[in-house]
Write the structure tokens for this entry.
Amino acid sequence: MSVFTRSRKSTVLGGLALIGASALVLAGCAGGGDGDGGDEPTETTGAVEDLTLKIGTALPQTGNLAFLGPPEEAGVAYAQSVINEYAETTGLDVDVVWGDSGDLDNKAYETEVPRVLAEDVAAIIGAASSGVSLQFIDQVVGEGVIQFSPANTSDQFTTYEDNGLYFRTAPSDVLQGEVHGNFVAEEGHQTLGMIVLNDAYGTGLAKYIQEAFEAAGGEVVAQPTYNQGDTSFDAQISEVLAADPDAITVISFDEAKTILPALVGAGWDPNNLYLVDGNVANYSEDFAPGLLEGAKGTYPGPTPAQVQDFIDGLDAFVEESGDAALSDYTYAPESYDATVLLALAALAAQSTDPAEIAEKLIEVSGGSGDGEKCETFEACADIILAGDVADYDGVSSPVTFDEVGDPTEGFINIYQYGADNTFAPYEG
């Protein structure tokens, strides 16, 4: 099941309808302007000479989200290759400085982010984890550099004091929480227990799941938390099972490899088990066959079928690069779009200065002005070079940033696990 959400602002009002296999959802507005204003079209009438956009990354090569590293880095590298292939026409090329975000336990970001910043980058793409991004956002924007995450979903970034330098291509937990909570209720469950990672991502998502589930008539009967670095979850599992819920949602990262087998081993039916984007992963090499069969989960982003052309191109690029084939594509489209949007904004600004790029990011996403729709870097670049305004509709979604750098359009997909402990789009 795929739910497409659209909102002119980051605050979502009202419920989401889950209708059939795919539903178009129009979310309510929440104050502010109507988004019709914006800068005048950039007067660009030719290629820019010797304009090199240097981008850094702080994506999870290590830590409890390391499974997201390969698809996210591949998305950035693929976009870089597409942009640089067209460099002779645009005069713009992209250079990438690769870095590891790690996690809150190994704290790789403490050395990696300063190393990347020292390379004089205009932007850093990352981190995947909201909690990790919150550890270094002040450092990045304090240096006048853009931070652009393909995967942060915490609502804290919507109101964060970031000097207009923070952007993301993943929709916030307001949307995923509402879809998730409503879906659990649609499945006929009246009571819900949750095991929740105690960080900005976990508690924020739990809040919106609870609000949606209870608005649909259900009750959250237990919600124990655990901390990053914990290795035993017996107390949390016991507390949830003692509440005798109809369904259990686990909000975690890699800790799911311990929590999920323990839950099922204690007699929990995986058909009543729900996961989220932090732990919807391929567990075929981790669990005994059938352990997760029937479990379901949500995460932002299009299904592989919705972006099959992109995946085919990405796979061919990865193979040609000599890298290991991808087994998961989570947040690869969002990483690709983040890179393309940065390049288009630099082209529209005729500059690699972070502040000037940031001023153009909303415009090239279609969040301001009256731009011409385009779906590839090449098509959008042609519009900009002709002196007009481009409105990039990305691979992950149309994006369309609001004034705080949040995407106002995006997919929240629902998946179901099979006997091999891998997931596929939920068929209903």
In short: The chain is about 35% helix and 20% strand. The first strand starts at residue 2 and ends at 6.
